[in-house]
Design brief:
Oligomer: single chain
Distance between the termini: 35 Å
Strand order of the largest sheet: 1-3-2-4-5
Structural class: alpha/beta
Number of strands: 9
Helix content: 40-55%
Strand content: 5-15%
Shape: globular
């Protein structure tokens, strides 16, 4: 793609990166076939190729973002399926991230939109604030049924109340900084990202990660000063806030590196992992550039770490349990991790099945299901429609957002690490159906083979 930036514009490091990305696009259109919004809506401006044209025009002219530009860029999930498909290697992730910052700083949104985004950025990244906000979830659930109308605001309010849990679990092990010693001889020492929303919505995921790793001889530290990864504010276009979160984490983990040492920085939330691995780019123009690059190089998803240290189950599967594996976009597209979670689940003894079109997003995408509930609901239903015919006992995945989005459809959603922890000596996941319920579906479960476990 030809670009026409001036020399003065190219002196801006962000524009220089955007120019390189834009020039790599050859308009082939392969991205349209795998873009969830284009597949759902059918509008070229809601495809990666269409958005690239919109971004190019906005950046070249230097004009404030227009309403149409903001509208179509807001509808991008940042699922990055287009990057997996693109034969030219277009770095769409960094292009859309920069474009969102431009929209956020140059476009004046309607008041209700500004307020909602401000609330999300002020509450979600902070566990104490989020927990306080969710204490009224039961009342909110009742109120959701009283909100009528088809306006954007009405849809967003219903989505917020619908996704809010009716009951919050007690605080987990990562609520405060601490060290969890390895059991037996120590094989490694890692930092675990406690993050934000997950430790409020399902702290048991972190608990399972810590139990499993310490039994494998891996010491786990939750570093003082580390918090939200910055993904939530980053994808809202709030660049300064995202950088603040990234700097705090880099500083916290650098202290650990320079004192006791770290072999890896592990996350069990794939949406966070994609951003952690990008810290080197995010902070490249700051005094922490070298430290950020070092931290990014150490970042791993929990399934990468388990594969590296040769996870082995200690229990034997007593009856076939069918698990539908949902590949989170941030894991399969953002981090290009596709085989490790499924291989580990099979090694643990589960029968793993995959839905048709596993590359398509479920509609969660951070705060997307709150800001774009209509499209998010369509994507959720599409995903469930491909999972239900497989008749699994549960849905497994590696991202809390996806598990929340796909919940409430009659199938339990369980984090992959909770299942792996159980089969390696940990407690049985509470959401998993009882032995009697699993036994009742044994003929169905026994009918699957590895060759039949994926839609074609």
């Amino acid at each position: 793609m030809q670009t026409n930036f001036s020399a003065a514009q190219l002196a801006d490091p962000e524009i220089a990166v955007a120019d390189k990305i834009l020039r790599s696009c050859v308009h082939c259109g392969f991205c349209t076939a795998t873009c969830p919004t284009f597949v759902t809506v059918g509008d070229e401006d809601d495809s990666p190729r269409g958005r690239i044209y919109l971004i190019k025009d906005m950046l070249e002219t230097g004009a404030p973002a227009s309403t149409p530009v903001a509208f179509h860029l807001d509808r991008c999930l940042s699922c990055l399926a287009c990057m997996t498909t693109c034969p030219s290697g277009v770095d769409y992730m960094h292009l859309i991230d920069h474009a969102r910052v431009v929209v956020e700083t140059t476009y004046r949104r309607p008041l209700h939109d500004r307020l909602l985004r401000a609330v999300l950025a002020t509450i979600l990244p902070y566990p104490d604030r989020l927990r306080l906000a969710l204490r009224g979830a039961a009342i909110g659930g009742i109120a959701a049924g009283l909100i009528g109308g088809s306006s954007v605001m009405s849809q967003r309010l219903r989505a917020m109340f619908k996704l809010a849990p009716g009951r919050l679990p007690p605080a987990g092990a990562t609520e405060r900084p601490g060290v969890f010693p390895a059991i037996g001889e120590r094989r490694a020492r890692v930092a675990l990202l406690a993050g934000c929303a997950q430790q409020v919505l399902d702290p048991g995921i972190h608990d399972a990660t810590i139990r499993l790793l310490t039994r494998m001889g891996i010491e786990v530290v939750v570093a003082k000063g580390a918090g939200c990864c910055g993904a939530l504010t980053h994808h809202l276009g709030k660049h300064a806030a995202a950088l603040d979160f990234a700097r705090a984490n880099v500083a916290a983990w650098t202290r650990e590196l320079d004192t006791t040492g770290l072999d890896a920085i592990v996350t069990d939330t794939s949406g966070c992992g994609t951003v952690l691995k990008d810290y080197g780019f995010l902070l490249r123009e700051t005094p922490l550039a070298a430290e950020a690059a070092r931290i990014a190089a150490l970042a791993v998803d929990i399934t990468e770490l388990l594969a590296r240290f040769d996870y082995q189950p200690s229990r034997t599967m007593e009856r076939p349990i069918v698990i539908a594996y949902h590949a989170a976009c941030s894991l399969q597209h953002g981090q290009r991790i596709t085989d490790a979670p499924k291989s580990l689940l099979r090694r643990a003894g589960f029968t793993v099945v995959e839905p048709r079109d596993p590359h398509l997003c479920c509609g969660s995408a951070g705060t997307y299901n709150l800001l774009q509930p209509e499209i998010a609901d369509q994507l959720r239903q599409r995903k469930l429609d491909t999972i239900m015919p497989l008749k699994p006992h549960a849905i497994a995945g590696g991202n809390i957002g996806c598990l929340t989005q796909l919940g409430g459809a009659g199938l339990p959603t369980i984090h992959t690490v909770a299942l792996l922890d159980w089969m390696a000596g940990g407690p049985r996941p509470a959401a998993l159906p009882s032995d009697a319920a699993i036994e009742a579906t044994r003929p169905v479960a026994a009918a699957f083979t590895d060759e039949e476990s994926t839609w074609t």
